[in-house]
Amino acid sequence: MAVITIDSHDPRPIYAQIEHALRAAIAVGRLRVGDRLPTVRELAVDLRVNANTVARVYTDLERAGVLETRRGVGSFIAATAERARSNERKSRELNAFATRVLADADRLGFTLDEVLGALRAHRK
Q1: Which has the closest alpha carbon to 22: 62, 72, 70, 71?
Q2: Which domain holds residue 42?
Q3: 23-33 pLDDT, tens digit each
Q4: pLDDT at 94
Q5: How many other β-carbons are positioned within 10 Å of the β-carbon of residue 56?
Q6: SS3 (DSSP) at 123
Q7: Per residue in 64-86, pLDDT tens?
Q8: If we measure between CA atoms, which residue out of 85, 93, 53, 48 comes closest to residue 66?
Q9: 51 three-state secondary structure
Q10: How many domains does the chain have?
């Protein structure tokens, strides 16, 4: 039985669906700190996706501190529900912010290069 499922009708890329599903499972408590995840190969076979796709998700989640991989043992949940939720929320908020900035820039006639240049100059 799969820890998660993917939807062939969902317009998001498969890796995004897998990452979202894992974060959501942590956020609602279906997966808890210390729980062992299926191996990359097991999950790929179960979901009928390329193993490289699952490996990419596991790597990204490990970098984000959501998973911990122990060589020869497996991948385990390392983040609490609150941390998994806050990372997802932070990503949504950043995307919404970027959308607003780009919409305002377009409305005011600024190019992306001009906006990026102003941000870099302001940062210094």
Answers
A1: 62
A2: 14-81
A3: 889 888 899 99
A4: 84
A5: 16
A6: helix
A7: 889 999 888 999 999 777 766 66
A8: 85
A9: helix
A10: 2
> Are 22 and 62 found together in one domain?
yes
Q: Which CATH number characterizes residue 22's domain?
A: 1.10.10.10
Length of the chain: 124
Q: Are residues 26 and 46 in the same domain?
A: yes
- Structural domain includes residue 6: no
Whether residue 98 sits in one domain with residue 73: no
Q: Tell me the CA end-to-end span of the chain in Å, nearest whole number.
A: 52
- For residue 79, give the DSSP letter: S
Identify any residues that bridge with 76 across adjacent strands, giving them in sequence order. 36, 68
**Amino acid identity, position 46:** D
Count the alpha carbons within 13 Å of 67 in the hemisphere toward its beta carbon.
25
